[in-house]
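Board notes (copied after class):
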Amino acid sequence: MEKHKFIKLILRIIGSSLLIIGLILTIIGFLHFGNFESNLFMLTFIGLPCIGFGIGITVFSFSQNIARFIKNE
C-alpha cells in the first residue's frame, strides 16, 4: 500500500510539472506568434502536448479519489 502512495505522489509531481512547463512554453510561443524572424513560435507545438499529457497523468493519479467521491455521492 505504501508503494502505491509513492507512485501516486510521483505521478502527481510529474503531471503537475508537465502541465506547468507546457503552459510556460505555450505562452512563450503565443507571445512570439507574429515575429517571423524568431523560431520561438515552435515552442507552442511542444507546449500543447505537454499540457495534454500533464492533465492526463494528473487526472490518472487522482482517479481513485474521484471514483470514491462519485461512489459516495
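Comment from the instructor: Residues 5 and 62 are 11 Å apart (CA to CA). The two ends are 25 Å apart (CA to CA).
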